[in-house]
Design brief:
- The longest helix has 51 residues.
- The chain folds into two domains: 59 residues, no CATH class; 199 residues, no CATH class.
- Helix content is 30%, strand content 12%.
- The strands form five sheets. The chain has a four-stranded antiparallel β-sheet, with helices on one face. Strands 1-2 form a two-stranded antiparallel sheet. It has a two-stranded antiparallel ribbon with strand order 3-4.
């Protein structure tokens, strides 16, 4: 009654007799292995048609041998490949991030240029005044035109230059005065609480105001020929105040922002900043040269 397949004598086998010609009974049979051999099951159903059947237990040893974890050597190879790919991609990612920051910086300067044009329209083509360019007060410090609030200002609230644009509502947010690429001594986090404070504390921005007076002659500047009038640039107080690596953004009176690749020349003229954050003394002649470079090379 039991049929034994010669090819499967070493273990369990199951086969429906005469299933090929359709004459045999529609049931499955189990064939026992020879005595003394290891019995294995192949998942055959036992029982006649219509009766409840049972599944034989599968061979878990076979599945366990086919599924294993990574070896130590394979893990080391994978980590090495990931490290190499990361080192190759990092320069490209850094360059992409810097390009994004340059776009944000240009957008900030464009907002400042538009705000100044509106200010000039409301003040008979005058630009926001700055105490740092005040011959009457005996103060001539063009390197301090990054400041937007200073206690020595005689304006209400000690606002000065860029600060007047914010205080009088021409710039809706003080965040537009800070560049995301800035790595110097004047990050946004350092001054964020001071913009809405009643205390007259010093506030620096990341951009350099051109001022309401000519740096060389001291004559008052007006909002004329806006396409050639430099309104603001990256910070020029010290070398660490330049926001970008290979040039500076410059905003013009017509609202345009142009990338100026004058980094090497400007860096040679800017003063250095020591570890205490103090600026080494420098005469205004160097700042006149810097501004001449920005205005002449358009």
């Amino acid at each position: 009654m039991f049929e034994v397949d010669n090819a499967e004598r070493s273990g369990w086998s199951c086969r429906p007799p005469d299933m090929a010609n359709g004459t045999g009974p529609q049931r499955w049979w189990l064939v026992n292995a020879p005595v003394g051999t290891r019995s294995e099951t192949r998942g055959c159903a036992v029982g006649a048609p219509g009766n409840s059947t049972h599944r034989a237990r599968p061979d878990y040893n076979q599945f366990h041998s086919q599924h294993r974890g990574f070896s130590l050597m394979e893990l080391i190879v994978v980590l090495a490949v990931v490290t190499i790919l990361t080192s190759l991609l990092m320069p490209a990612l850094n360059k992409l991030r810097e390009n994004v920051h340059k776009v944000v910086c240009a957008s900030n300067l464009r907002q400042i240029a538009v705000a100044k044009s509106i200010y000039a329209a409301d003040h008979y083509d005058n630009l926001p005044p700055s105490i740092n360019l005040s011959p009457q007060a005996g103060i001539w410090e063009p390197q301090e035109l990054m400041v937007s609030r200073t206690p020595r200002s005689d304006a209400p609230g000690a606002w000065d230059g860029f600060g007047l644009l914010f205080k009088q509502g021409y710039c809706g947010s003080f965040e537009c005065f800070y560049c995301p690429s800035h790595t110097g001594q004047h990050p946004l986090s350092r001054y964020a609480d001071r913009w809405h404070s009643e205390e007259e504390q010093v506030i620096y921005t990341n951009y350099h105001y051109s001022g309401d007076r000519d740096w060389q002659t001291g004559m008052r500047r007006f909002f004329v020929r806006p396409s050639t009038l430099v309104i603001a640039t990256d910070g020029l107080r010290t070398a660490s105040d330049i926001n970008h690596q290979f040039g500076v953004n410059a905003a013009y009176g017509d609202g345009s922002v142009r990338w100026r690749p004058d980094m090497v020349t400007i860096l040679d003229l800017l003063p250095k900043q020591n570890e205490a954050g103090n600026t080494n003394p420098v005469n205004s002649e160097k700042y006149n040269q810097i501004w001449s470079i920005l205005e002449d090379q358009r």
